[in-house]
Structures are given as C-alpha cells and as structure tokens.
TrEMBL record:
It comes from Clostridium scatologenes. This is Transcriptional regulator, GntR family. CDD domains: WHTH_GntR. GO terms for molecular function: DNA binding; DNA-binding transcription factor activity. Keywords: DNA-binding, Transcription, Transcription regulation.
Length: 228
C-alpha cells in the first residue's frame, strides 16, 4: 500500500480514509485483495477503532466487501455500477457542456488549457498512467466548476468509483492519444461555443469506449479476475 503525506490538521481517521480510498481507486490495492485491520493499523499508525469506521464507510461506498467469518476485501469492479455511472455521466455532462458553450469563465478556460498541456506532457510516458488518469478526472471537474455545478460533479464522482477503476485499467492498457484528442475537442467546443458538436463528442467520449472494454473483461485478459 502506498502511503500519502498527511495534510495539515488532518486527523487519523480522515487520513486513513484518504489513503485507503486512494489506494483502491489507483489499483494499488487490487480488486479482490484481502485487507487486514491489524496491518492497516500498523502501517497507518492509528488504532483499530478508526480503521473499522473507515472500512464501514468504504463498504457503504461499495469499495470494500466484508465477508462474515472470512474477512474484508477490496470490492470487485461491478459492471452494473459502471452502467449506472455511464448513464448519469452521459446526460449530466452533455447538459454541462451545453451550459459551458453558453457561458464559461476565462480563468476556467485557461485552467482547462493548462491541464491539456500537462496531459500531453506525460502521455505515453512509462509508469505515469495514474497521473494521467488524475488529470483526466480533473479536466472534467473543471468543466462542471465552470458552470457552477461542482456538487453535481461530486455526485458523479461518488457513483463513478467502479467506472473510474475501469477507466484507469483502460488508460494503462491502451494509448492515451484518443483521450487527449477528445479532451482537445472539449476545449475547442467550449472556446468556440460550438454547441451543435456537443452530443457527438459525448457519445464518442462517454458511450463508445464501452466497445473496447470487452477485451478487458475477456477470460484471456490479465484483469479478468478484477470484475464481478
């Protein structure tokens, strides 16, 4: 497990939650992997009571599974939860983009452009897939912030934990070139207020990647055991 730097004023329970969730979302803790309360307590240097509370919270978020009399495990990636996240994201991001075409702050447009520069800089570089994945998520978050829908984006992220783990696998397995090209289209559509191009782009970026996921689900895939 990868430890993170503790934030100023962060208590042990919040730190444990942030570290555990980050490790699950970045696949440092793999789907189906056993989680030991005692080992977590030692690694994070906090008592087992807050560890149990954190695990219960992650269970409510469908990120861990507690098997009575057996143990606690990182949840397998659930295809049904992926479909639910796609459904929500497809409709909400399409509407957010339409709003962005009508009005979008200059400072947020600059932030999008800087994010794109960072994406291009690390794309294709070995062992930086997780950094690219974080830039990808942040890119879309900026769009929602630009149209004053930050809480909507937080809701999307909350339901997208299984979807985003699959996205990371996809970004590790395939070239990031297509993702960057599509992000450039997002930027240009907002900049040029090209609302007529929104629906096709959302189809390409959110819906169409499903076609490539079958090879990840396939029995010959190294990731096949990650899925429910």
């Amino acid at each position: 497990m990868k430890l993170l730097e503790k934030l100023k004023g962060e208590n042990g329970k919040d730190y444990a939650y942030r570290v555990l969730k980050d490790n699950i979302m970045t696949l440092e803790l793999k789907p189906g992997e056993y989680i030991s309360e005692s080992e977590l307590s030692q690694q994070l240097n906090i008592s087992r009571t807050p560890i149990r509370e954190v695990l219960m919270k992650l269970k409510e978020e469908h990120l861990i599974e507690v098997k009575p009399q057996i143990g606690t495990y990182v949840s397998l990636i659930d295809k049904h939860l992926i479909e639910e996240a796609l459904f929500m994201r497809y409709f909400l991001e399409k509407e957010a983009m339409k709003l962005a075409c009508a009005s979008f702050p200059e400072d947020k447009l600059i932030e999008l452009e800087k994010n794109l520069v960072s994406q291009r800089h690390i794309a294709g570089k070995q062992n930086l897939e997780k950094e690219f994945h974080n830039l990808d998520i942040r890119f879309h978050g900026i769009i929602f912030e630009g149209v004053n829908l930050e809480e909507v984006w937080k809701g999307i992220l909350k339901i997208s934990t299984h979807y985003n783990r699959l996205r990371l696998i996809s970004e590790i397995r395939y070239s990031n070139k297509v993702f960057i090209e599509q992000h450039e289209q997002f930027f240009n559509i907002i900049k040029n207020k090209d609302v007529d191009s929104v629906e096709m782009l959302i189809n390409d970026h959110v819906s169409n990647p499903k076609k490539g996921w079958e090879s990840i689900f396939n029995e010959d895939s190294q990731y096949k055991d990650y899925f429910k």
